[in-house]
Sequence to fold (348 residues):
Amino acid sequence: MSHPSPRLAALPLLSLLLMAACGPELPGDPGEVDDVGDDFEIDETDAGKADFGADWPVLRSGKIGRDVVAAQYLLRERGYSLAVDGEFGAATASTVKTFQRARGLSADGVVGPATWDALVAGLSLRQGDTGSDVRAVQYLLLNRYGYSISVTGEFGATTDQRVREFQRDRCIEADGVIGPDTWFVLVAGGGGCGGGGSGSLVAAHTAGQLRLQGPDSEGSSPLDNIRDAEAGRPARRSARGHYGATRVYLNPGMVAGMAQLLSRFGHYEVSSIAGGRHGATSHHYQGDAVDIAALRGAGIYGDTAAVREMMRLCVALGATEVIGPSSQVPGAWTDANHKDHIHCGGWR
Fold:
């Protein structure tokens, strides 16, 4: 059951750099959900610019992943009989069209900003509530953002605690209530502390909270790469790399993951993003990998507790290619080339 509440006033525009990273592929709701990952591309013709520095995801036939699971849960909460399988197939498209017609929307079967708004309208959840909408919240907290929570459909004390943690992490009012603003940040990403870029990674570097090595003469250092991304520009690759001094847009999921690493781990040092020379098929050249060379002011060499903690966080926050000095982290691995740094790439 949900408690209706009016939509809250929009928060100021925040940096895209703190978009939520897609979370790990963890078990969702056994017997009901098969988390199949998240491979969406935002269609800028459909996605509405939002108030938190991110957009509602645009879902249509053929899409798979976490956002589809969330939409299916919300449709079930609205009374529709629908399997929650993370696949936007014919049944989901038909149900979306039925829902759209019932809400006076264009029945195109595409879940864009107006349909998302209608799906969450009036759903204000708090401790004591139950339902498929609670499952949607728990599922996203677990499988997209990596919080420790079970998908039960019951908004108990643990869910209240995790919701407040999520709200604090995104600098939303930490009242434990899933209102319109928290719904938006859960589904679309965004949020962050400060306004107008003060929550950016460049600002964290300037404040000494994070070290992005550079700039260098090529303009391809980590600091240069993040500055470009923050300005909405593609980042420069190194002239000595396999692609030469060309440019590539950084994966927003990786940049969001870097922000979450800072929030959850603390100070670390980045030695390479899109710059440098790597293997010919490296995720670095795709703007989808970060190399971490120091943790809390100490250089990396060998397996330590801090190394394991950082590698685990990279896995939990959505990196699918985590390589470093430790062989003890599930979902990650080690090799002879990664004794002095941690590579986190392939971000979802």
